[in-house]
């Protein structure tokens, strides 16, 4: 099967791409990397702060995607979301492991500078605006919760301890906020 190089992928194409990736199909590897390496690398730069760390993260994300390709379920979310979750989790693990004086501080999305390598200015602006509107649809407490978890790398347990709230409550609130975010993005599209 040949995969489209541009435009959104259907859930069936995503499923087939991941099946082919698991089988070691070189075209699937090229398509996956060409479509998703830039956002993974950009996330690495934002969270880890160096090109070397970002390149290593990108390589590790695609290696893990290949190893876990059979676990991808398009019914649970988009392929891009799955890959970015892997990238985020690996980056946070590295930050926790390497936490030290040489590590750059994490910043909120609103405080991030514009990327130096703009993909497509229209696409970048559209993605940024969609994300801002999605975050604006959340309550201030939901925004704070997602910010702590995803931009500062706090675990649900750390948030629970800091806020004096039961762990189960924090997990439920995180899940609810993510569901609301997803729904607001679906309404946008």
Q: Could you give the distance between the termini?
A: 27 Å
The CATH H-level homologous superfamily of the largest domain: RNA polymerase sigma factor, region 2, helix turn helix motif
Low-confidence stretches: none
Class by alpha and beta content: mainly alpha
> Which CATH-level-2 architecture of the largest domain?
Orthogonal Bundle
- CATH hierarchy class name of the largest domain: Mainly Alpha
- Briefly note the CATH topology name of the largest domain: Rna Polymerase Sigma Factor, Chain: A
CA radius of gyration is 17 Å
The fraction of residues in strands falls at under 5%
What is the topology?
Elements: H1 11-22, H2 26-48, H3 51-67, H4 79-98, H5 121-136, H6 140-151, H7 156-163, H8 167-188
Task: Give an overview in words.
The chain is an all-alpha fold and 189 residues long. The chain has eight helices and no strands. The longest helix is centred in the first third of the chain and has 23 residues, at 26-48.
């Amino acid at each position: 099967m040949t995969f489209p190089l541009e435009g959104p992928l259907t859930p069936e194409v995503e499923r087939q791409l991941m099946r082919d990736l698991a089988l070691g199909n070189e075209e699937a590897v090229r398509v996956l990397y060409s479509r998703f390496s830039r956002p993974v690398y950009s996330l690495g730069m934002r969270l880890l702060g160096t090109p070397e760390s970002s390149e290593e993260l990108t390589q590790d994300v695609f290696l893990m995607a290949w190893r876990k390709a059979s676990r991808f379920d398009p019914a649970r979310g988009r392929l891009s979301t799955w890959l970015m979750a892997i990238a985020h989790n690996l980056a946070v693990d590295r930050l926790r492991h390497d936490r030290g004086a040489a590590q750059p501080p994490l910043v909120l999305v609103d405080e991030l500078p514009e990327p130096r390598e703009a993909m497509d200015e229209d696409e970048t602006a559209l993605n940024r605006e969609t994300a801002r509107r999605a975050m604006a649809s959340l309550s201030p407490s939901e925004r704070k919760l997602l910010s702590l978890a995803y931009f500062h790398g706090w675990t649900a347990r750390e948030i629970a301890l800091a806020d004096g709230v039961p762990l189960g409550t924090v997990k439920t609130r995180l899940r609810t906020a993510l569901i609301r975010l997803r729904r607001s993005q679906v309404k946008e599209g």
